[in-house]
């Protein structure tokens, strides 16, 4: 039997970890996928790629800015009107933001990062939880399946501060805050059968990383990583699949480190 059997909703799915998560869900048996991204043409391309490799999976590509309340509510409504429910939600969309320590950071750059990485995760998880509260559990007679499972994207920089050679202070603050949101929602909705957890990847080979940090500082991070390499996006994606699946049914409010 396959690991997943409900409906997935993934933000930031046109690239990197989000795209790899869509493929991991498809590989593990998801019935339908709503995939959302700011980049409208790229998300359509990813949708076509998934349909080609997994013709049995229904895919709905959506253009979405996760920092926009109206767009978020309407994306969730579209996914629900198409597929009837949302079982596995991954609030992954995020930006790297300014490589600056506090005294060099413009207020507008601070706000931009917080809008996407924190408010975006809150707005999407709020809409997802409102929907999950309305739906019946996927398997009413088993506590391994609740009303839904949510994974919020944090980072190793949600747990420790950023090094002085990569001083992404707004980014680190936003990711620490995602853990506070995750733990509180986990406590609020546990009794209603909604699981909420966060994932904290180390350094992953995606366009976000290559666009933000040049090779000098990045090599330092690789050198101090015991496994001695960056993660493939697929390795983070499979951990997310674990976190939404019944394999992790007793995990609630966790910040799962996947950091090599
Ligand atoms: P990526 O740049 O490859 O993908 C991010 C995707 O999010 C892009 O497709 C982008 O268009 C989309 N996006 C950006 N802003 C958006 C918005 N406002 N609304 C909707 N979509 C938006 O990056 P990635 O490395 O795959 O990052 C995904 C998540 O993982 C981010 O939250 C990032 O902070 C987190 N993360 C990444 C790393 C890493 O080393 N790459 C490590 C830890 C955590």
From TrEMBL:
It comes from the Eukaryota. Signal peptide: none annotated. Pfam families: adh_short_C2 (PF13561). Gene3D superfamilies: NAD(P)-binding Rossmann-like Domain (3.40.50.720). Keywords: NADP, Oxidoreductase. One of its GO terms (molecular function) is oxidoreductase activity. Belongs to the short-chain dehydrogenases/reductases (SDR) family. This is 3-oxoacyl-[acyl-carrier protein] reductase.
């Amino acid at each position: 039997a396959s690991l997943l059997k409900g409906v997935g909703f993934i933000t930031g799915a046109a690239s990197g970890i989000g795209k790899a998560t869509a493929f991991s869900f498809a590989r593990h048996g998801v019935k339908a996928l709503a995939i959302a991204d700011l980049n409208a043409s790229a998300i359509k391309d990813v949708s076509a790629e998934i349909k080609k490799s997994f013709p049995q999976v229904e895919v709905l590509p959506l253009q979405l800015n996760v920092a926009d309340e109206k767009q978020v509510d309407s994306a969730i409504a579209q996914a629900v009107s198409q597929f009837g429910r949302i079982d596995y939600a991954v609030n992954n969309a995020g930006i790297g933001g300014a490589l600056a320590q506090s005294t060099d950071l413009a207020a507008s750059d601070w706000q931009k990062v917080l809008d996407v990485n924190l408010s975006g995760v809150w707005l999407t998880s709020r809409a997802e939880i409102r929907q999950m509260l309305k739906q019946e559990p996927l398997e009413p007679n088993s506590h391994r399946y609740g009303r839904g499972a949510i994974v919020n994207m944090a980072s190793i920089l949600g747990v420790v501060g950023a090094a002085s050679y990569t001083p992404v202070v707004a980014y680190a603050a936003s990711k620490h805050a995602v853990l506070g949101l995750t733990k509180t929602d986990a406590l609020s909705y546990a009794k209603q059968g909604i699981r909420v957890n966060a994932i904290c990847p180390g350094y992953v080979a995606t366009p976000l990383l290559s666009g933000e940090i040049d090779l000098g500082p990045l090599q330092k991070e690789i050198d101090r990583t015991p496994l001695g390499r960056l993660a493939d996006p697929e390795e983070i994606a499979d951990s997310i699949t674990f976190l939404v699946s019944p394999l992790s049914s007793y995990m609630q409010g966790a910040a799962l480190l996947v950091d090599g």
